[in-house]
Amino acid sequence: MFELSDKHLMAFTKRQPVALVRGEGSRVWDSDGKMYLDFTGGISVTALGHSHPKVVGTLREQAATLLHVSNIFHIPQQAQLAQLLCEHSFADRVFFSNSGAEANETAIKLARKWAKEHGASDRGDIISMRGGFHGRTLATVTATAQEKYHHGFEPLPGGFKYVAYNDLKALERAIDSHTAAVLVEPIQGEGGIIVPDDGYLPGLRKLCDEAGILLIFDEIQTGMGRTGKLWAYEHSGVAPDIMTLAKALANGVPIGAMLTREEIASVLVAGTHGSTFGGTPFITSVALATLTTILDGKLWERAAQMGRYLMDGLRAIQASTPAVRAVRGKGLLIGAELASPVGPVVDACREGGLLVLSAGERVLRLTPPLIVEERDCDRALAIIKTALGHA
Ligand SMILES: Cc1ncc(COP(=O)(O)O)c(C=O)c1O
User: Fold this and answer.
1) How many other CB atoms are found less than 10 A from the CB of residue 340?
2) Ligand 1 contact, 134 CB (< 6 A)
């Protein structure tokens, strides 16, 4: 199987040498029958764990009822999902896409159109933060202010500027008459689980309001309860003008969403944007089941509780070894910064029966499902402690 992958697939992802074939809750099994604790959660996707009965039931029923119809018709599940998202956020309107990158593309298009209608015709620049991650399409990879993702893809689209994360003064200096919006992750995920200072998001809100520009929060990784609140922006006391979601919104069925307020949404009129697969009955019914389960179970509270438990455990490990330099995160979006490259530790964890992620060169990233149990965390911590002997 590994040879087959190596022979025919584009080799842009460095794959771990296992093929996962089955999952249940926080556990997955490989093709040899070996069981692992899955603390990757599909990179913050499977918030409800694998094979969740509500997700599986909805998926089966909807697939047998109506899989796809075009957005030229009304789609009840799509409307209900949008209503639920709006009732539980700052937003009034939602656009559904297929991925996070596409949700961010939509946000960029909307911000530019809004800026042109509310300012000068040359207002179109998007300011994003160094170390951030917003996707792989040409516009979103350009918004991703990390050289390594740009290299070789030039010429990149224009109209993007970068400033340091967690630096309000740098942003204040960068905003000018060409700026349309600021695009930022409330916590940087791929960039190494970087939690900004408490005043950072309120400071961004103030700067954007003073300049009359839009504030876009990319909650593709932080949303859906992962950080201990339904949306990470709730920790800060301020709301964005536009928010993008994807990953956990349908627990593994591909979806993206862009949420915004009425007066901003109104600039994208009929014919200016669209998607063939975005928001179709199958996808939105699964998302509806996922969101309802998260809301009914207040699973963000569980994420906060389990996150504290895991971080306390990691800090106890940090106290016992110089291999861990720092432990940071919110809820179940957790990073442990190591003194040496993380690759061997990821491998040793896998050997020990635990799947984990990296975020950059030296950060071990844990994004278990929100339904993870204390005994799973205990087992994961024991495996990590042993694996750090390999660091
Ligand atoms: C914060 C953030 N934004 C955008 C994306 C891109 O999402 P997708 O891979 O669904 O296009 C990701 C993916 O990791 C992400 O973490």
Assistant:
1) 14
2) yes
Which three-class secondary structure state does DSSP give residue 241? coil
Active site residue 218: yes
Q: Ligand 1 test: best mutation among 44, 183, 220, 233, most atoms within 8 Å of CB?
A: 220
pTM for the predicted model, two decimal places: 0.98
**Ligand 1 atom nearest 254 alpha carbon:** 10
Q: Atom 6 of ligand 1 has which residue's CA nearest to it?
A: 135
CA distances from 274 to 68, 95, 96, 103, 278 (A): 15, 9, 9, 11, 8
Report H helices in 216-342.
262-265, 281-296, 299-320
Of the pLDDT bands very low, low, confident and very high (cuts 50, 70, 90), residue 390 is low
> Rounded to 5, what percent of the chain is helix, strand, coil?
40, 20, 40
Catalytic residue among 90, 95, 96, 133: 133
Letter for the amino acid at 267?
V
Q: What is the pLDDT of residues 342-388, one digit of tens each?
A: 999 999 999 999 999 999 999 999 999 999 999 999 999 999 999 99
